[in-house]
Each structure stands twice: as structure tokens, then as C-alpha cells.
Amino acid sequence: MARSFSATCGPDGLLHHLADLRSAVPSASGGIVFVSGQLAQRASGVAELVRSTWRGTPACVVPAAGVLSERGELEGDTGASGVLWSGGQVAPFALPERAEDPSRALRETLARAIGPRSATAILFARPGALAAGALEGLASCAPGACLFGAGTASSSAIGVTSQGELIEGPVTGLAITGFAPPIVDASPAARLLSGFHPVEEVSGGVVLRAGGRPALDLLSAATATLGEQASAQPLVLAALADPTVDPRGGPAEPRGDAAEPATLGPVGSVSSVSSVSSVSSVSSVSSVSSVRYVLRPIRGIDPSRRGLLLGDDARPGARLAFAVRDAAAARAGLEGIARHVSRSALGSAPRFALYLSCAGRGQGLYGAPDVEARILRQRFADLPIAGMHSSFEIAPWAPGEARLALYTGVLALFRAPS
User: Using the 8-state DSSP alphabet, how is residue 118 labeled?
Assistant: First the structure.
């Protein structure tokens, strides 16, 4: 059993909705409450309400740029959405506030929370808490886990334990065991402009050469394809893929400009996913071409060296392409992953879903409200859904692995086996 809600409300209205959910799900095992506007600024007070109203139920309170449910999206307003469910065992966790090595602290925290079990970890990270590569290597401590999540609007998410303790840190989340693993998929708000080229020379986060050409020349060639159909200020992003792997094992030799075609399939990935169909029953990654990639902002150019400043993700051997934020691609991508998730759930009983959507999507991208909520409602009807507009996304990459994402929608469907 699960129930969701969303509303424009203050603390008094929120208390009413929390009480209604608890009455509807009396034997709840876990819950999440997303809050925006003034409620996000008072997240600790919201956590107190959750602790007292959902007494004994582990939960997480997440400050968001906006909130959403199957009923619609609330942007630029004070409001809340949430879901309360029964089934499985739920345990909040939080990283230490001043960890010397956040990546190591995250691995150790997940190892304690879920270990090698088949489990789900939903991560909510404060902006700036995780470096781009902080999620790499998590499979070593949680090989059977499904990992996904999002970045909060500003302050930390707050966990509420079953004993009523409030915990928080730069990364706060929920570990879920004893529950069917969710089907997780992700899609971008971007359209590829080029093929992928092996990165050959990098200096201080500046990509100097890729595919045998100066990186700035590759960008110029890619953006030239935008032509007169481009918006007044198109947002162009770098797409970074892992090195090509030879079927015999190990990295393949660079292939120069013989890159994969930039044709788009029905679904895609922005800042974290593309490629592969299912990476186990735990999670799946969507496919845009034959390449998994992450999107990163182009932070600057170096005209004298014809280079592009992309940051720490820009490593020799990685592959580089370019993409543009695009509403049509975003809409088609979400429709595609919703269809894929729905079909993958055949033979099981869907309980509820979480949808984590970048704040760079929504009405600002589509020019109309509730576009993504309508897509989800058309596919899943009255299934309880709760979610947020996030500062970034944590999208599934492989079993036990995830990557930081931008301009991405992450959809997770929780269900009970038939």
C-alpha cells in the first residue's frame, strides 16, 4: 500500500496532509517528503512534523527547488509532495558533516547501510557535497545495490529514524531492503550534436585535443549544425563517455574521428545515462545511441590553445561529444522511459514511483506547466508518485554504480512481485 500527496501549503496544511497519509497507510514502513519555498528553508521544522505525525516511521525530508506528484508540478512556490508506503525495511543514513574524503565516507556509509545485499539506496546530496567522480567505485562496497537520487535545493536533507532521531549530512538518504528492487530509468533534456571523439590531451581540466583535432574546433563544427533553427541562446553542453572497451577486454585503441553516429533513439540520457537496456533487475539505463555518457557544462574556452574547460571528468581516453538542451528531446525521452518502465513492470504490482527532475526542465524548458506530470499520469494513471525539481541528479549507471547528472529526469518504479 502507498499514498502520495502534493499541495501548495504552509506548516499547518502540511500537518493535515501528513496526518491523512498516515491514516491511509497505518502500517507504513517508510516515506519521503519533498518541500519547496519557505518549507524548504524550514526543513528542520518539517522534519519535526514528520517525526511527530509519522511516529515510528523512518523517512527523509528533502529541500527542493519545486515539488511534483501525479497531479501536477509546483514551481516557484511554497509547497510539498510526499509518499508513504508499506513493505520492506527502511533505514535513513547520513554522511559525516566534515569528512576528509567524501568519496571514501560515502563508500563506508553505504557499506554499513546496505553492504553486499540486494538493496536500494536513495541519495540526496547538498549542492557542492560531491565531486563529479565521487560516485565512481561504489560497486566495490554495494555491488548488488540500486543507487539513484538527486541534489537538494540548498540545505541538507534530513533523515528521521524509526526511533525518532533526526540525522543529516552533506549526503542523506534512505536504504531500503526486503522490497522488490525498483525499475529505474533516466532521460535527458538534450539532443546530441556530434559523434564521440577520444580525448587525447588534457591539461588542468582543459581538453586540448580529441579525435585528432583541437577541442574548440570540434565545438565550432558541432554548433554550426544548429543553424537558424537554434533558439536565441541555446545551451550547449559537453557529453563525456567512458573509454571504448575492446570486446577482448581492456580499452580499445582510439579511433580518431570514426565516432559513433549521433542518431537519437526513442529514449536518451543526459548527464548520466544512455546506452544499455537493463543492467539487472535492479536498475536500467536508457539508450540514445550505443554510448553511455554524462553531460557537463562547458565552463570556458582557451582560445590560445584551442581548448575547452570541462573539469575533472575530462580525462585522456574518455570520449567527447556535444549536445544542446532541447524540449522535444526531453519530452520524447520521458515518454520513452515511462513506457519502458511500465513494460518492465509487467507481471508485478506497481506500488508507487519517485520522479526526480532537474530544475532546468519544467516550465522554463517547455514553456508550459505540468508537461512531465501529464506524461507520467498518462502512462501510470493514478499510481502514487512523488518527486522534486533538483539541482542535479544521481542516475543509475550499472549495478552498484551511479553518476552525477544534469538536466535529467530519473524515474523509479517500486513494485511488489506478483
Answer: S
Q: How does strand 385-390 pair with strand 393-398?
A: unpaired
Taking the C-alpha atoms of residue 207 and residue 239, their distance in angstroms, rounded to an integer, is 13
Task: Give pLDDT, residue 290.
Answer: 53
Domain ranges of the chain: 2-187+330-417, 196-277+289-325
The closest of 85, 40, 87 to 66, measured between CA atoms, is: 40
Residue 290 is classified by DSSP as S
DSSP 3-state helix, strand, coil percentages of the chain (rounded to 5)?
20, 35, 40
Residue with cell 582510439: 254
In this structure, how many other beta carbons lie within 10 angstroms of the beta carbon of residue 231?
Answer: 11
212: left (phi over 0), alpha (psi -120 to 50) or beta: left
**pLDDT at position 229:** 57
CA distance 66 to 358: 10
Q: Report pLDDT digits (tens) over 20-68.
A: 999 999 999 999 999 999 999 999 999 999 999 999 999 999 999 999 9
Does pTM top 0.85 for this prediction? yes
Q: Which residues are bridge partners to 417 per DSSP?
A: 348
3-state secondary structure 198-264: EEEEEECCEEEEECCEEHHHHHHHHHHHHHHHCCCCCCEEEEEECCCECCCCCECCCCCCCCCCCCC
pLDDT in tens, 22-35: 999 999 999 999 99
